[in-house]
Amino acid sequence: MVIARMSGGFQKLTENKDEVSLEAGTVKECIEKLEQIHPGVKGAFCDEDGQVSGHVAIYINGDNIDEKQGLESPLQDGDEVDFMSGFAGG
Q1: Which residues span the domain enclosing 8?
Q2: Quick one: CA dihedral 37, 86, 53, 70, positive or negative?
Q3: Is the pTM here over 0.90, yes or no?
Q4: What is the pLDDT of residue 90?
Q5: How many domains does the chain have?
Q6: What is the rounded distance in angstroms from the CA atom of residue 75 to the CA atom of residue 9?
Q7: CA 77, 5, 43, 70 torsion-angle sign
Q8: CATH number, domain with residue 9
Q9: 90 inside domain
Q10: Strands 80-85 vs 2-6: parallel, antiparallel or unpaired
Q11: Which of 19, 65, 88, 90 is deepest in the core (most CB within 10 A)?
């Protein structure tokens, strides 16, 4: 099992749950499983091309998936996947 953790703004997508435990082998699969449990999650996290939306940052155990294999980043039992609002610099 992996733990999908939602930052404050995204908890509304998961019925105000800050954590959802599920089976997933990649970040993409994690999002798809979340969508099955909580419809609307995928549309909030991904753009129309299926890529991570610019306003979303995803981390596996504290490491940004952009520095890994993106949505294809592998997950292992016990991993924590954090979904956070992305921050724009200025």
Answers
A1: 2-85
A2: negative
A3: yes
A4: 46
A5: 1
A6: 24
A7: negative
A8: 3.10.20.30
A9: no
A10: parallel
A11: 65
